[in-house]
Design a protein that fits this description.
Radius of gyration: 17 Å
Strand order of the largest sheet: 3-2-1-8-7-6-5-4
Order of helices and strands: EHEHEHEHHEHHEHHEHEH
Strand content: 15-25%
Bound molecules: 2-phosphoglycolic acid
Largest sheet: 8 strands, parallel
Mean pLDDT: 97
Oligomer: single chain
């Protein structure tokens, strides 16, 4: 973390977990546990049907509620999708785009990730943009090339001005939900490589002001070491975001 230059963001990704009642209970439990811990932004990204309950429970606290995806069109014949206009109308400011599970199971490509990102930004939302290499790519030694290409394709058409509404989540796909974590050195190296690409695209000032999270089996045990790295500005947390004590420990590691 380098709090002098950029904001630390600890975000939970609930994925397909929690009914509205479960989300309410979870937020009510964690709210007092993270109260006053203002050295980082705290966000939970929730399934669409759970957002309203989570927002109601989080009201007046330092917890923000986001969505897990957004479509690129404003409205129309896209069964099952939700637009940025709909999300902002519901008071949702943050949205995850390009999560590897979307890419792996639902056919998302850098092109659709880019379109969704541009639409979310145009609607005034803040985007948590996920990217990262698969295991074969890391083993082949091409992680740098992969994350560089993804960063460029996913951010195509995003202006330097809009970068203040972008958070990048570096998520090595082999570390997501597997219990395997990138070492702090691997996380630092790749987050640094992504920042180098941002320097190339937007210059040093924008690159240094952009929050780059690490995601992939971050938990209460490994968070402090990962977050101690200068280029790791927070975490995107799946499994451990469903357990109040574990998530709070990660928030504490960011203080
Ligand atoms: P995990 O998920 O923490 O369960 O590995 C991270 C993510 O998918 O964002």
């Amino acid at each position: 973390m380098n709090n002098a230059k950029r904001r630390t963001v600890i975000a939970g990704n609930w994925k397909m977990n929690f009914t509205p009642a479960e989300a309410t209970a979870f937020i009510n439990e964690i709210k007092p546990m993270v109260a006053g811990k203002d050295n980082c932004d705290i966000i939970f990204c929730a399934p669409y049907v759970t957002i309203a309950a989570a927002q109601a429970a989080a009201e007046g606290s330092n917890i923000k509620i986001g969505a897990e995806n957004v479509h690129f069109a404003e409205s129309g014949a896209y069964t099952g999708e939700v637009s940025a206009k709909m999300l902002t109308a519901c008071g949702v400011e943050y949205v995850i785009i390009g999560h590897s599970e979307r890419r792996q199971y639902f056919g998302e490509t850098d092109e659709t990730v880019n379109k969704r990102t541009l639409a979310a930004l145009a609607a005034g939302m803040k985007v948590i943009l996920c990217l990262g290499e698969v295991k074969e790519e890391r083993l082949a030694g091409i992680t740098r090339e992969i994350v560089s290409m993804q960063t460029k394709l996913d951010l195509a058409g995003v202006s330097a001005e809009d970068m203040k509404n972008i958070i990048i989540a570096y998520e090595p796909v082999w570390a997501i939900g597997t219990g395997l974590t990138a070492t702090p050195e691997q996380a630092e190296e790749t987050c640094g490589q992504i920042r180098d690409v941002l320097v190339e695209l937007y210059g040093k000032d924008v690159a240094e002001a952009t929050t780059i999270q690490y995601g992939g089996s971050m938990n209460d045990k490994n968070a402090a070491e990962l977050l101690s790295k200068p280029n790791v500005d927070g975490g995107l947390i799946g499994g451990a975001s469903l357990v109040a004590s574990k998530f709070t420990a990660i928030v504490d590691a960011a203080q």
